[in-house]
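User: Hey, quick favor. My workstation is busy. Could you predict this chain's structure for me?
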Amino acid sequence: MKDKTLKRIHKMLRPQAKAIFIVSVLAIIINIGEVIKPYIIKVVIDSYLSQGLWQKGVMTIGILGSIYIGIVILGNILEFIVTTTTSMMGENVIYSLRNKLYKYIEHANIPFHDKTPSGTLFVRITSDVEDITNFFKDVITSFIKDIFMIIALGIMILSLDYRLGLICFLLIPLVIITSIIINKAASKIQEASKKAKTKLNIFLAESIYGVKLIKIFNRQREKEKECFKLCNDFYKSRIPTSYTEGLLIAIMLIIENLGVSLIVWASVNHLFGINLEVGVIYIFITYVKQIFEPIQRIVENLETIQEAFVSVNKIYDILEHKEYLEDFEKGIELEKIEGKIEFKNVWFAYEGENWVLKDVSFTIEPGQSIALVGRTGSR
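Assistant: No problem, here it is.
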């Protein structure tokens, strides 16, 4: 099943491969800038301010400040390009998938529509496609960016002082374990919430589509009660989500500040012979804060990936069933229709032996109109 899903993902990503590569390269450049910025401040603190200098050789604080500002401006420009390109990739996927799904629905035969509720198709073409868009916007490029960021920050921390770096790295398993536990609980909550949302969307689609029938049979009150129940179920399913999100943020802040405290404590007490300059302490604190964010984001994105994979399978489970598609090319075009229509001993069923017509015979004379009324229509 996993291989099948990955093949479907690859098929979907292939048209966007060039854009994904470009965005990933730009994202890595942005990360390099994020790593360099604190280092520039560290140099200014330790090599200039702590020694009461404003210039060393040809390099001045003003030049370093200009480099810093240049990195900030370049980073923001590249971030704009990355965000815009990623959004466009997501929109292209939406455009392509929705058109494919709609074309399939239009060309699918009656048996397909008999066994597939219109509300389900509505959810596939809206909600499930949106899940895949989130996968493009939140995961594909950010995953590469986050992995590179973790590696780059890890190298920088260890190169500055491996002893203090190892002390800080003790917190990383705590971050990962905490994120996994909370996200696992959040995943179950999200799954229940998504089911409630799907039920509500299917109900709304079918109710709006069949509003005339609801009015004809005077079922407004019953449908209102059903809508209220489904909305209430969805509302209740969303409440625990705010708690899990708030809890994760709070715990991450505690761990982050614990890391900062460890750095200060180890530096002040010269633990393991650690004796660092003020600038190095600053850069350590900055890097530790920075490294927690991509780790947390990767764990959080696992849920988005899972949701996207489920949605991809649901959509391609429809698109890959070619047996339901009608072949409009095989039909014979009749330029002029003459004569009568005669049915002799006709049997018909959509599925198996669930007969809709049983040994039916009738003749329609030229110019004559007849109506075939089923059990529901005859009441």
